[in-house]
Design brief:
Length: 284
């Protein structure tokens, strides 16, 4: 792995030392299942404008399974159309969602701050139809978006297909009512199993990505670190990420645990300080 580590052999050695130290610390503190994070300071803007769309990065060693998560799905109206398909018996998404509600119903619920807090606490992950996703910052507000707490993920209800048969409404407009449970399941599985980050428009921001847990073996955590760096710096992923990133853009790379200090993996410059958990890009 040292010879194929994207950040170089020196960084590989630092990564192993730091990850080992984090694992030992978390276990000694009685937190053997605590999450381990990779934090990367970048010297470019990761987005041209605020879109609040989490970018999912595939990992060799998956973080979790759908069955371990409570998931809220926010659909287009009417929710019953999507609920009937996604919760049908023997559908791959039969038990995937804790609740499926329409954007219209969510707007009604959002009038009560207590109801929003309840939704926040009861659901691990929020996903939304890509057609309603852009309306959610105004509906869910700081409860979900401030400090990047539980920013909703975007789902496509069916694979894009120019030849797909659309429904013509009474107003003579074409509507895409397709809902492919298997396609939805694959996206949800990727969201739950892989890591993600929300890009910001600020130069010098820190992005934080979960890479595994303190009860994992070091090699698996190191491989996930390498997956992230290779994905971010691969020109082919530029469109998915929203920015062109290369190794020189990664000012510093560190690992940290829950409630622990950051330990070094790689550092390109000492001029840019960390601003971890900066929520300045999430104003309302």
């Amino acid at each position: 792995m040292a010879t194929t580590f994207a950040l170089g052999s020196d960084a590989y050695g630092k990564a192993r030392t730091s990850v080992n130290a984090l694992i030992s610390h978390q276990r000694s503190e009685g937190r053997p299942t605590a999450a381990i994070y990779l934090t990367i300071n970048v010297n470019i803007k990761l987005a041209k404008s605020k879109d609040y769309r989490p970018r999912v990065i595939p990992l060799s060693h998956k973080l979790d399974k759908i069955s371990n998560k409570t998931v809220l799905f926010i659909s287009k109206d009417p929710a019953s159309h999507y609920r009937d398909i996604l919760t049908a018996k023997d559908s791959p998404t039969e038990d995937a969602f804790k609740e499926i509600i329409s954007l219209k119903k969510l707007k009604s619920k959002s009038k009560s701050p207590k109801t929003l807090i309840k939704l926040y606490k009861e659901n691990d992950i929020i996903v939304a139809d890509n057609r309603v996703h852009k309306f959610l910052p105004d509906v869910l507000g700081t409860t979900f978006y401030a400090r990047k707490k539980k920013v909703p993920f975007m789902l496509q209800m069916a694979k894009p297909d120019p030849s797909a048969k659309l429904r013509r409404t009474q107003q003579n407009k074409l509507k895409d009512d397709r809902c492919d449970a298997e396609y939805v399941y694959k996206q949800l599985k990727s969201i739950v199993g892989n890591t993600s980050f929300v890009p910001t428009i600020n130069v010098g921001d820190v992005i934080s990505l979960k890479i595994g847990y303190a009860n994992w073996v070091v090699d698996d955590l190191i491989e996930n670190i390498n997956d992230i760096v290779k994905y971010l710096t691969n020109e082919e992923n530029r469109a998915a990420i929203g920015a062109a990133i290369n190794l020189e853009n990664l000012v510093s790379v560190n690992v940290r645990g829950e409630g622990s200090i950051s330990l070094p993996v790689s550092e390109r410059s000492k001029e840019t300080g960390q601003k971890e958990d900066d929520d300045s890009d999430f104003d309302f």
